[in-house]
Specification:
By secondary structure, the chain is α/β, with parallel strands linked by helices. It is built from 14 helices and 11 strands.
């Protein structure tokens, strides 16, 4: 599979962009464990143009994580074109346009999946961004606004005509948010449409290697993108890679998995240059990790872990918890 001149090989695994999750530290871990492409947190076009420091920091990429994409979102042609040019200067390998974010503060203002209610503008923005930059441009979107407007098949052909290099489809509508089960049937129809020549990436409910293998086999997508399934377990790419290769996934000592989370913690503390802020930034991973599943009466300890305010306190609690993990 190729996007532009980048050859990802067969059945590649991509890390989805996630706000407050896919910062550089997490992207590097996912890359280490087998992610073939990583994507930044989505970046607001208007904030890019205003040179908001926190926004510009989100666009920092390193050679160690390549290939890497910067994802931008906005609601006007002018802002998106200007933001794309600034993003290109950060030297990613791809620029991705977000037409999929369903949250009210984004979609409700006409950006993200809100663009699914104004397809002419969506296409104009895409075409203008493609023309404005020299890097390959990709798009991430959803099936449609709601169950009465599943438009992705027609939209995929229209987006292809704008010159994009690849399209990622999340198997839910905007109104579904992240609820229910992702519907991969429309994704399959797009992937198998003989008129579609660009790469199609499927996204939604990829939680283990068996899920990835099933979607490749049943839909014919060129790649799958993993989002929430990676939160708290960047090593999921190692398991998926092994499953796709038809070999037994590696089984590490429980302490190995904890060490990965501690590496992420220390990366976040260093990035934030503040112990408490680094801990807070890591809490989403600690809350989502499956590492401590199955521990009897874990709720009280989990609350304590998520309330810890110093590294020493947190590490002590995590060490206590890992001792209770079976195996």
């Amino acid at each position: 599979m190729k996007i532009g001149k980048i050859d990802f090989g067969e059945r590649p695994l991509f890390l989805a962009p996630m706000e407050d999750v896919t910062d550089m530290g997490f992207r590097l871990l996912c890359k280490e464990f087998g992610a073939d492409l990583v994507v930044t947190e989505f970046v607001n076009a208007d904030a890019i143009i205003r040179s908001v420091p926190s926004t510009l920091r989100k666009m920092h990429v390193s050679d160690a994580e390549r290939p890497v994409a910067i994802q931008i979102y906005g609601r006007t042609v002018e802002s998106m074109v200007e933001a794309a040019k600034v993003a290109e200067e950060a030297e990613p390998d791809l620029i991705d346009i977000n037409f999929g974010c369903p949250v009210k503060k984004v979609a409700g203002k006409g950006a993200g999946s809100g663009m699914l209610r104004d397809i002419p503008l969506l296409l104009e923005i895409t075409r203008s961004v493609v023309e404005a930059v020299s890097l390959p441009v990709t798009v991430k979107t959803r099936l449609g606004w709601d169950s009465n407007q599943i438009i992705i098949e027609e939209l995929a052909e229209q987006l292809q005509e704008t010159g994009i290099a690849a399209l990622t489809i999340h198997g839910r509508t905007r109104n579904q948010m992240y609820k229910g089960v992702a519907d991969w049937e429309p994704i399959r129809r797009v992937a198998q449409n003989p008129k579609i020549t660009i790469s199609i990436i499927g996204n939604g409910d990829i939680l283990m290697g068996a899920d990835a293998r099933m979607r490749f086999d049943e839909t014919g997508v060129d790649a799958v993108m993993i989002g929430r399934g990676s939160v708290g377990q960047p090593w999921i790419f190692e398991e998926m890679r092994a499953t796709l290769a038809g070999v037994e996934p590696p089984k590490h000592p429980k302490e190995w998995y904890l060490e990965v989370l501690l590496r992420l913690l220390d990366q976040n503390i260093a990035k934030c240059d503040d112990e408490l802020k680094g801990i807070i930034h890591t809490r989403r991973h600690l809350a989502s990790t499956p590492l401590f599943k199955g521990i009897p009466d874990f709720k009280k300890m989990r609350v304590a872990i998520l309330r810890a305010t110093t590294r020493t306190e947190l590490v002590t609690l995590l060490d206590d918890a890992i001792e209770l993990v079976e195996g």
